[in-house]
């Protein structure tokens, strides 16, 4: 796995973009190969995650910054393959955040959790097809989605139908008929409220005649 990661990383670092231009400048200043610079930066990051403070914020920063940059590039490009790759990443990223919320953040009491989470997110954004995002999505999220998607769609359709009925009725779900008839003059009204207001007119005429 490391050999595959190393070769894919080396290939991605040879592409022309803002990050590789920054690495090229560092390489020219220091005389150290860019891939060695990346490994040193990763080692420093992992060391800080083990002994440092505020690591959860740093992990979120690591898990957001580069994927967000690549996602914007994917949106602006005409290729659709990279769109799918980063959509899968964000589904996995949000699922992880939701899992932490559901566990009331108890996972942070696990020793070296921030370090393990950072490793996981880096694997999820690794520049090869079968990375962490691909594995989690295809092994866990996609089967669960296919199993329950029809039930969720049915519930959403029912909720949308109920909301539409409430808007059309204008009476927040009351069981009143669509039109109410005035027995005095035979006119029809769309709501009981309109009928009640109209009947006050007849009541006023009867008082005036008496």
Automatic annotation (TrEMBL):
Residues 180-207 form the C2H2-type domain. The keyword Transcription does not apply. GO terms for cellular component: membrane. Keywords: Membrane, Metal-binding, Transmembrane, Transmembrane helix, Zinc, Zinc-finger. It is a multi-pass membrane protein. Its main location: membrane. It is found in: Membrane. The keyword Mitochondrion does not apply. The chain crosses the membrane at residues 31-51, 87-110. One of its GO terms (molecular function) is zinc ion binding. PROSITE patterns: ZINC_FINGER_C2H2_1 (PS00028), ZINC_FINGER_C2H2_2 (PS50157). Belongs to the DP1 family. This is Receptor expression-enhancing protein. It comes from Calicophoron daubneyi.
């Amino acid at each position: 796995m490391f050999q595959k990661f190393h070769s894919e990383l080396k290939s991605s670092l040879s592409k022309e973009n803002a990050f590789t231009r920054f690495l090229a400048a560092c390489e020219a200043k220091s005389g150290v190969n860019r891939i060695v610079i990346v490994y040193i930066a990763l080692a420093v990051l992992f060391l800080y995650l083990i002994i440092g403070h505020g690591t959860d914020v740093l992990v979120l920063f690591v898990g957001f910054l580069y994927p967000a940059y690549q996602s914007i590039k994917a949106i602006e490009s005409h290729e659709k393959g990279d769109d799918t790759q980063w959509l899968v990443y964000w589904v996995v990223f949000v699922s992880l955040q939701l899992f932490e919320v559901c566990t009331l953040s108890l996972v942070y009491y696990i020793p070296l959790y921030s370090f393990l989470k950072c490793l996981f997110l880096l694997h999820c954004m690794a520049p090869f097809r079968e990375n962490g995002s691909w594995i989690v999505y295809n092994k866990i999220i996609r089967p669960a989605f296919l199993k329950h998607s029809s039930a969720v769609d049915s519930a959403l359709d029912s909720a949308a139908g109920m909301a539409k009925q409430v808007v059309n009725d204008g009476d927040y779900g009351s069981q009143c008929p669509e039109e109410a008839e005035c027995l005095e003059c035979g006119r029809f009204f769309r709501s009981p409220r309109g009928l009640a207001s109209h009947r006050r007119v007849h009541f006023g005429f009867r008082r005036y005649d008496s």
